[in-house]
Amino acid sequence: EIKECDWSSDVCSSDLYVVTVGTNPAGRAYRVNGNDYTTPQTFSVQPGGGLTVSIISNPQPGPSGTRYAWASWSDSGAMQHFFIPTSDSVLVATFTTQYQLTTASGAGGSVTPATAWYDAGKNVTITGTPSLGYTFSAWAGSGSGSYTGPSNPATVTMNGPVNETASFTLFPVQVTVQSSPPGRTVLVDGNLYDAPQTFTFTSGTVHTIAADSIQDAAAGTRYVYTSWSDAGARPPSESLLTAPPYGARRRIAECVTTGSILPKPHPQRRSPSWSRGAHVTPPACQHVRRHVPALA
After folding, report:
1. What is the pLDDT of residues 155-206, one digit of tens each?
2. Do residues 292 and 250 touch, judged by C-beta distance below 8 A?
3. In terms of C-beta density within 10 A (0-12 exposed, 13-18 middle, 19 or more buried), how is residue 11 classed?
4. Of 81, 169, 174, 260, which residue is least crowded by CB atoms under 10 Å?
5. Class of residue 39 by CB neighbours under 10 A (exposed 0-12, middle 13-18, buried 19+)
6. Which DSSP string do the residues of 87-143 spell out, in sequence order?
């Protein structure tokens, strides 16, 4: 057998170990003995010698919404280590492909999780949380494994970069306008109604309410507006009602007669009681401003 030998070191070519270094997936950047590579490379190593191998950066960028995170070397070494072959060898750096999940929300709510990276193939649960006064509407998704539809929570599979946007809508609420005593007329959005009257409004919308100053009843009796149940007398103005963010809301217009009975409101003005009293002449009808904050 003919050998090529380096007589200065007494090493022959047949005594060298051939080490091939590469990555999976291909094209990732690595370093061997201080030199950077992105393609497989072959090195000759003397017995007892070795190679210093490392990963240049971690994670490494890929196409839009894709990156590669170092997972391991095939010899189970650290990200940077000295590899000593004992035979011809193949040394491979394995990277995990990760995709970005981008989440966003429209007005009226929030989403979880926030935008983040996930390993390829991972199932991720996404949840839309509506703010007070809103209800979840739907997901609009794009990308392989994304979800589009009304389910909440929903699941996406990270087969590629995924975008998910949650939308929310204001939900309807019922508002009941009453009078005390019952049967008095009220104006809601410019229309006349006999109280009590229940309306269905969209949460957060603004409406006008009013009550005539003096309303006739039976012969010799009339009713004079005094106040709304949730406010005292204020300067004349148009009353504004913002539909509440949830549940039902009642507005009561309290009146007194110019006869012999006088309404005596409960301290919380929820359910007026009645008591006998002397003839009184209340002030003229005064509209009050009432504003229920709409929640964003």
Report:
1. 999 999 999 999 999 888 888 888 888 888 888 888 999 989 998 888 778 8
2. no
3. middle
4. 260
5. exposed
6. SSEEEEEEEEEEEEEEEEE-TTEEEESPSEEEETT-EEEEEEEEPTTEEEEEEEEES
Residue 149: Cβ-neighbour burial (10 angstroms; 0-12, 13-18, 19+) = exposed
* Token pair recorded at residue 198: 């229940």
Alpha-carbon distance of 31 to 57, in angstroms, equals 10
What does the block give as tokens for 239? 């009353």
**Position of tokens 């019952």?**
182
Q: Which residues pair with 191 in a beta bridge?
A: 188
150-154-160-164 Cα dihedral, nearest 10 degrees: 50
195: which 2 tokens?
């109280």
H/E segment holding residue 135: strand 134-142
Residue 46 CB coordination number (10 Å): 13
The Cα-based distances of 14 to 1, 40, 88 in angstroms read 10, 22, 11
**Under the phi-then-psi rule, with left for phi > 0, alpha for psi from -120 to 50, and beta for the rest, what region is 144?**
beta
E strand or H helix at 69, and its extent? strand 66-73
Task: Tell me how many helices (H) and strands (E) the chain has.
Answer: 0, 28
The tens digit of pLDDT for each residue in 116-149 reads: 999 999 999 999 999 988 999 999 999 999 999 9
For residue 47 the two structure tokens come to 């017995």
CA distance 284 to 137: 47
Bridge partners of residue 6, in order along the sequence: 11
Q: What is the pLDDT, as a whole number, of residue 242?
A: 63
Angle value at C-alpha 143, between 137 and 159, nearest 5 degrees: 120
The answer to whether 55 touches 79, Cβ cutoff 8 Å, is yes
CA separation for the pair 4, 11 (Å, rounded): 9
